[in-house]
Structure formats: C-alpha cells, structure tokens
Amino acid sequence: MNRRCGVLLPVASLPSRYGIGCFSKEAYDFVDFLAEAGQTYWQILPLGPTGYGDSPYQSFSTFAGNPYFIDPEAMIEAGYIDRESAERFDFGKEPRTVDYEKIYRSRYAFLRRSYVGSPFCLHPGEKWAGKEYDHERKEFEDFRAKNSDWLPDFALFSAVKEHYDGLMFMVWPEDIRLRKKAAMDHYRTMLDEEIRFYEFLQYLFAAQWKKLKEYANKKGIRIIGDIPIYVAFDSADTWSHPELFEFDEKGFPTVVAGVPPDAFSATGQLWGNPIYRWEYHKKTGYEWWIRRLAQMFRLYDVVRIDHFRGFDEYWAVPYGSDTAMDGEWRKGPGYDLFATVKEKLGKREIIAEDLGYLTKSVLRLVKKTGYPGMKVLQFAFEGDPDNEYLPHNYPTNAIVYTGTHDNDTTRGWFTTADRKQRKFIKQYADIHSSRTATWDLIRLAMRSVAGTAIIPIQDYLDIGSEGRINTPSTLGGNWCWRLLPGELTPDLAASMREFAEVYGRIGK
Known about the structure:
Elements: E1 4-8, H1 25-36, E2 41-43, H2 72-78, H3 83-86, H4 100-116, H5 134-146, H6 151-163, H7 174-177, H8 181-190, H9 192-218, E3 222-227, H10 236-240, E4 255-259, E5 269-274, H11 278-283, H12 287-299, E6 302-305, E7 313-318, E8 328-331, H13 335-345, E9 350-352, H14 360-369, E10 373-376, E11 398-401, H15 410-416, H16 419-429, H17 437-447, E12 452-456, H18 457-460, H19 490-502
Parallel strand pairs: 1-2, 1-12, 2-3, 3-6, 6-9, 10-11, 11-12
Antiparallel strand pairs: 4-5, 4-7, 7-8
Helix pairs in contact: 6-9, 12-13
C-alpha cells in the first residue's frame, strides 16, 4: 500500500511582492520546501476566476483560470511593462492578508498595461509588430484554437460584463442575455480588443501554471485540485449553455441549490447555484462533464469533487425563495455519470468530498466508485467511539485531514473546545500538554491507516484562529490569509520529513 502525505495551501496564500500568492518564485520555493519535507501532495483550492465574495467556489467560469495568479515578474521580464510602472500599482501592503479590493482595482489595470505593451494585442506597437514575434503570436493562436470550446464564450462574457460595469448577466439587455445572433455579432465587433485581452490573460495563466506544475511533478510533488459540484449563477457557463441547467424559456432558473434545515441552521442553506438538468446531460453522454473533468485533469494530478453527495441526491429550492426550507430532494445521476467518466477518460484519481450527513445511498455510491472519501479529525471528538471520523474507524481508502479550508486551524479549534471535548481529545490523542496539542493531532492523522494524510500548513506552523481560511456562511474576511516570507524554515521541513518517514508516508 502506498502511504503518502501532503500539505493544503491555496495558491492565493503564498507570499509574494504583489499582494496575493501567484505563480511566482515563491511558488517554486514552496514546491522545493515540500520535496525537502518528504511530501507527495500539494493540495490547492479551485483555480478559477473569483466573483463576489472572493470565494474560489463561486467562479465566473469552470474552465478559465484566475488572472490574479499570473506572475507580474514574468510580465516585467518579458518587457511588456517596465518595473518602475509596475511598482506604481498598489496591491496592498500587509504581507499576511490579501486586500481583494486593491487587488481587483490594480491587478487588471496592471495586466491591461502589460497587454498593450505585448505582441498579442490587435494593434501592437512598433517594438512588437515585427516578424520576430510571429512565433509567440502563433502559440497564442494555437492556444485559442485548442480552447475554442469555452474560451470565446468566456472572453465575450467577461468583456460584456466589464462593459456593463460588472453587472450580473441576468440584468443585461435581453438580446445579449439570451445570446441573440445580432447582439452577439454586435458585441464581438464593438469589444474586439477587450475580448482579446481576456483571451491573453487565459493564455498567460495556462502557460505559467503548466510550467509550475511540470516543475512540481519533476520534484515528485503531485497536485490535488478541487472543483465545486455546481457552477456560479453568474458565470460564462450558465450564460453560454443554459440548456445544461434548470432554466425557463426566458433564461431564468426554476430551482437553485442548497441544503435543508438541520441542527446547524433552522432554515437550511440557500446557495443559489443553478441546478443541472441531469436528463439532458445523460442524453448527451455527459459531454459537458467529460470536458470539464478532462480540463481539470490537465490542470491537476488528482481531483477532489466538492459536495459529492449531490450526485446521489440534491436539494432543489424554488427560485426566488428566501430560505432553503421549501426545497425537495431529487435524484442525481448516481453511478451512471462516473461509469461514463471512467469509459471516456480512463481510470483517474478522484477524491469524493463526502462530509456531512450521508444516507445509505450516498455511502453506496462512494463505495461503488472506489474513490477515497475524507476523514476530518475536528469532526471526531463528540464522545461517540463509533464516530466515523475517529482514526480507529478509518478504512485504508481514505484521505485524513486535521482540518480543511472550511475549518478553524487545529490550534484555534483545540483552544475553543469545551472542557469535556478537550478531555476526550487529550485522552484519545495522548496529549500531555496543550502546548504540543497541534503536533500531537498531526501525529494522530499521520499514523492512522488512511492511505493519505493532508495537513494545512497553518497546523504545521501551529497558528491559531487568525490563520483560518474560511468561515462558511459568512461574508468578508475570508480567503485572505497568507504565509509570511521566511516562515517555512529548514527546521520545519526536517520535522515534517521525520513524521513522513516514521509513519511510512515519505515521498519517493
């Protein structure tokens, strides 16, 4: 059995000079650190362009990449923008925190300046117009052709959205909202430079990520990527392919996603994402899903699918509802989808995010796919010895986490646990001092029988609640935490490597 371990760290949380983590030297340094620490996996969050709330789980496209992750240094080195001009942009000065307002205002302005100063714009300046740049332009055109199934729609969607000051497409004029041919032709002509700019960003993103991923793979580090089950309501996917979703003839949803009332919420959670028209997907042989997952496997080595239970049953709430209370359970595609994925894409490595309340039919689906599920230590210590999240109940085909991006850090969680729970944690994990609690719990995860152990970097650093990435169902202050330069020391790498070696998880 191959026992492995890795680290959870969003790309946005990397240090950099430019306000947010990106595909910069610091990303390559982090890969080197993981290799030195004996790790096999780097787990990240979705790489798509973020929308309102800055959540990577609400993206303007399921196929496109986030322009925030493009390395500004690469633009300077290529000569698209000079360093003096680049340093005039304010990306935020606090190294621990992403200032998304400043990033939004400055990053696109920086990238637009770089686009105008490149050989790729429609009317390049004299410096870039020569034939010596024809090879680069051909690579760009090849990229556009290779991604013609999604890139033109995404670029037009982005350009029209910018034209209407960022308004969601549901309130655009009806002719372009419903993609009438005359309107589509009009906006393609009027916004031709803007469309090409957004294509340029995707070209840069893809080239830089490919280079970083190849570097990681050569170092023995594999990438675990993450995709949400649903797409955002306001996205190029819903605008360009309304037939895939439960929309009416006027282009509005009839139902949206959520979860029903439970012990955590008396009114449930109303997510608002469009619901798939699964009968249509089945008739097409799940063509869109096959394309989506194929794109994910070009980006990642392993794919974690969020809210996996939604493929068995999903909660559908009438559009316009104020809460999720009036929803109903509906059957999802079940195993049929994943049998088709295996047939079309071959055997691929997929992780099923199977957290939360699971029915017998969901458990049967996960078992039938053979995908490993997730075990989170922070869910384990409620006093029940049969709790599936306690390590003595794990199967080997599982991924164990001390916590995920939606949890508090282990130090923060342990500190705020009540006396009874903390007593059980100490007894179970053999914790003799609160000072060592975080590393004792890491040890518990690492020595479990679960095939893979993934630990958030905040836990290795023993950071408190100030290091939390996201608090679900809250707005503001999420997705902001960043590593500081110099925090990942050789001593830390040595300690992580020792754990990997002792518990048979060393990367090879």
